[in-house]
Amino acid sequence: MRRHERHVLEAGLAAADSASRAAVDGMAKVMIEQIHGACTELQRVDELLGNAIEQLMSAFNSVSEKAVGYQTSLACEVRQAMGTPDGQRLQAVAQKVAKDVNGVVTGLQFRDVVGQKLGHVRKELENLELVMQQIRAVSADQAGLTASPGPVELAAQVQELLQELEKARVASPVRQELMHAGEIELF
Amino acid sequence: MKSILAVDDSASIRRMVSFTLKTAGYEVIEAVDGMDALAKAKHKVMDLVLTDQNMPLMDGLTLVQSLRQLSHYRTVPILILTTESGADMKSKGKAAGATGWLVKPFDPQRLIDVVHKVLG
Description:
The complex is a heterodimer of chains A (187) and B (120).
Chain A lengths: L2 H78 L4 H23 L2 H30 L11 H18 L15 E3 L1
Helix pairs in contact in A: 1-2, 1-3, 3-4
Chain B lengths: L2 E5 L3 H13 L3 E5 L2 H10 L4 E4 L8 H9 L9 E5 L4 H10 L3 E4 L4 H11 L2
Parallel strand pairs in B: 1-2, 1-3, 3-4, 4-5
């Protein structure tokens, strides 16, 4: 290869390296911004949920004593009217009230379950952001202080960081997909 | 009246547990984390401990291990009530000395049935 051709090739490769690094850096920068936005939204959802449950808890506190009193007097009426058509009707009412109270108690645990799920998602996003920052660091030309990686080397480094991210993934501790009561296991 | 120590850093869960078990005729003492629970358990011997797993200062598994080291708590039933449902965590709970594992959200009637059962 003649000197001139070799010089053109080296210049071309250097330009390609620079374009690759800029593309990876730009992509990582956009992703970091997106992750920041998602984390902020999740934080807001968490706060809204907290406020909503606080209000529901306040309402529950003011009616729960009355609900228990009503259930107790209903149980008395059911015992007294046992064997009569009225007894059957009251029994059905008592069962409905008990089912509704149980439903409220189960539903009010929503905050805790969803809060843990949100916390898990936020942690995953934070890990992703950390990897994106590392990708930016390896792709950036550090003003000649370190050797800039070529496209192949850069791709290998990015691949390595993504594998680290995959290894760092932790399964969500919350598996429930619906607000049904969870399982019970006695050892 | 049998006493139950309800341990959870979530005020709403403590309220739900307390409401459910008081309605069923139990005395319920609340604790906000493992450290608080350990102090209250030393002050008064409870008939049953119902604890969350993920809490600040001291988690549920550490609380179970700490309680099992106290002579008064070697045979006291300890139930873990948590959002975690993985088999590995349950195994750790069993190894630590827990009596059972309940996954949130709990159904009030089923919780009462389990408490009745473990308290004999």
